[in-house]
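Okay, is this right?
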Amino acid sequence: MVDLSRRDRVGLGLIGLGPSWEERYLGTLRRLQSRLTIRLVYDPVEARAKSVASEFSADVAGSLRQMLDRPKLQGLLVLDPGWLGAGALSLIAGSGKPVFLASPVLRQASALQSLLQPCPATEIEAKQPNNADDLWMPELGLRFTPSTCRLRELIATKLGSVKRILIECDLSAEKAETAHLVDWCHHLMGQSPTLISSKSNGQSLVSHGIEFEFPSALTPSKPRTAKLQQHPQGHTVATFSIECEKGHATLTDRTRILWKTSTESADESLVDERSETEILIDQFCRRALGGLNPVGRLGDFLKAIKVVESVSDFGNSAQ
């Protein structure tokens, strides 16, 4: 008997599982089963692929090519980069299907950058222009944490526009992690940053930090700013401090925000809100059906990578 409800859901292919599968993605996909259905699973470890396929009543693909040749798939979730090289990513791009790129895949910046370049062979195979920036949706999770979503509400209702951002973080982390922070600033400010400096008077990146400006045509003499600064010893989670026109907010983790204005203040716990992963995959399903959602493009993240790479001593301090 045909399961009619499956016809109304977005049919997705799952490529790679990886170490974050059970912790981050399994529960999310279970909760979204009213919106999506996993139709095909491919993973180099066949036993793992069969186990996950059984969980979602899906088929197992014997190869990446077999996965991409399945005509009824409306989108692809690429979760594990461990075995994916530039060739595999190019092959996936040639399918012409919408693709969700999990955050670990974004560490392969050079391979992803090539996807945005014109590629005649890919265009012929897919019979459409190479539009990876429209079809590929990166997992920019920091943009959609519960605390960030609440912050944007407060900016619109109580705090007013952002004047300055200070992020205390681990500046010795790899460049992809720092790029996520740069992208978060871009998302909150609504424009790409301009690098001011990454060192001063001989100080290292870790001791001085990275400073940015967000020039405004309305107030060119008072540009908005952001700074990434090494967090105090013993701290492992980035802390975000946001100065606004009418108040101030601090994000101490992904589910907590402290804010205040001249007349009120609050310390809010957001543990019951939807996770950033659930929001992003839900939005990806909408995009796979033809919708346009402001959830970030691959080009946005690659611009953030370029900003990080422009920091003169980042490679030395982050290795």
Summary: Confidence is low (pLDDT under 50) at residues 119-130. The longest strand covers residues 162-169.
